[in-house]
Amino acid sequence: MESLSDIAVFVHVVRSGSFTAAAEKLDLSKSVVSKYVTRLEDRLGARLLNRTTRRLSLTEVGQAFFERSQRALCEIEEAEAEVSRLQSEPRGELRLSSPMSFGILHVAPLLPAFQVRYPELTVDMVLDDRKTDLVDEGFDLAIRIGELPDSSLVARRLGPCRHVVCGSPEYFARNGVPQSPEDLADHPALTYRYQDAPAEWRLVDDEGNFHQVAINGRLQMNNSLALREALLKGAGVTLTPTFVVGADIKAGRLMAVLADYKALEVSIYAVYPQRKHLSPKVCAFIDFLSDQIKAPPYWEPGAILAKRA
Q1: CATH assignment at residue 12
Q2: For the chain, how many helices (H) and strands (E)?
């Protein structure tokens, strides 16, 4: 911006006391410095400096312009210093979007430790199962699970999201354990509204054969934690991520079945808008979350699965 350069040179001339001293500090020739100041005066239509062969002095209007220009340049220098400071270490506000169930179970519990590590960083997490627009809604990053059709985002994989068919031990004691995917048609199913094709569950056997089962959907919800509560009460069976039910399977409150069949597996990502310079706060959070999740994820129930008889 030409006018800003002219103002900056003018301020340096006044601070230095001469065109020659200002030229040396700015690594410019004296004639170029004089040209900048003359161009500024012409644009303003006012003389800012009284020039003699021995000294420079500010005119009345020049004094007023210098004082305001100097304050403005100081603000710019402080803004640049602030950007440099923010880019050197995590600080400021991190705006994060996360799916509701994953955010409640696996992000929110980690935030206190994250903020202890980075005390100058505040976090604003929004829980929402819809796909937020990171740029329009002002998010620094989002947690996404599943396919990523938006190529305008940069993604880093945090880990797998494996699904299992499960129900409560009490439910299976009353209704029997399904031995094949086809048996699921005889069981009341609890379905997640936002899952692709919630009325059909697709499983793969050890030989790579697909089993696509039309299930008996008795109860549908738009939140996995709500489905989990119904599941614990023995309302039926469901196909759900292990990050929702892994702890319950480990504790014996729920039982995963059909271990010889693989269910849906997708990935969990941290995504953020394409930027040339990624801020330290985003890098720090992604690294922290990745370190906590590890591989395989800590919520995986292991081999606590009901095998076919």
Answers
A1: 1.10.10.10
A2: 10, 15
